[in-house]
Structures are given as structure tokens and as C-alpha cells.
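To: structure desk
From: M.T.
Subject: fold request, one chain
Message: Could you run this one when you get a chance? Sequence is below, nothing fancy, just the single chain.
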Amino acid sequence: MARKSVREEIVNAAVERFHTHGFNAAGVKDITDSAGVPKGSFYNHFVSKEALAVVALERYGESRRLPELTDASVDPLVRLRQHFEFLRAENTVRDYSRGCLIGGFGTEIADHSDAIREAVRVSLARWAQALAAPIAQAQKSGQVKTATDANTLARFILNAWEGTLISARSEHSEDSYEIFFDTVFGTLLA
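Reply: Done. C-alpha cells follow.
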């Protein structure tokens, strides 16, 4: 089996380190050590840790399974629920030790870096757009009765999800997830 490129090794290690420790606590040496590459090789691929963080956000966004939200062969509300069930499982299997890398960067570093703030903004907008598609389909089919714009609902649900992750981490409990699912799928999208 061919070895991944050094750049890919660094990006993969960065996603893991940033997601586990945050931007500030993940040093370049920590990332390159984790990738198993010399620290000097970092600068052959990235001009700064900030530039790497932007790439890491893109990579993390790709792992959110957004294309599955457009699978028309699956009921739109089932797609939406499966999306959040996947995300919940991803967090509970780690014993609530992580939240969302996008939200984490949004709260930790976006005020200090225009590049990261823009990457967070783009990531959240892309995610909200993906969530809006099944919501709009469910509205069109009559499954969702609210006349609130699908884009507005998607943004609200995404904001609620990010808050749910914070609560679940602080409580180390399923309670916040249950409230999210009951409210979103039992009330808001009923």
C-alpha cells in the first residue's frame, strides 16, 4: 500500500489534534509529531498554522456527510434525522470529549484570524444550505407545516445543534441530545 503524501499526513493529524485540543493547544510540532513527519516538512506545504487550520476545516466539513442530505431516495426528514444521529453517535462514542471543529474554531480563534473566521463562516453556510434542502422538500410535500423559510429553519437548527454539543460536553450526558431531537423533530419540523 502506498504511503499518503506528507501533506495529507499533516492535514489528517491537524484535524485530529485541532479537534481534540483546539487551535491554540495544538502546536506545529505536536501536529508533525502526530503525523510522523519532520517539523521542517510542515513549511514545505503550509505557510502557517492558520493556513493549515483553514484546510483542516475544509477536510472536517467533508466528513460531515453533507451529500447524504440530498439523497432523494430517502425521506427528507429521515435524512435529516439520520444526519444528526450520525453526529450524535460520533460524539457519544468519544465520551462527549469533543464538539464540532467548526464551532470550536468559531468560538476559540475566529475573533483573532480573518482567514479562520471566513473559513468558519463558509463552513457553516455550506452546512446550513445542505440542511435546508431536505427541510424545503419536507415543506413542499406537506410533512413540515411551518411556513418559516427553509434556510432560516436550517440556520436555527444548526445553531441549536452547536449549542447542544456544548451542553452535552459540559454535562457528559445524553440529555441535551434528547432535548434537541424532541424539539427539532417533535415540534419544529412536525
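Reply (cont.): The chain has nine helices and no strands. Let me know if you need anything else for the meeting.
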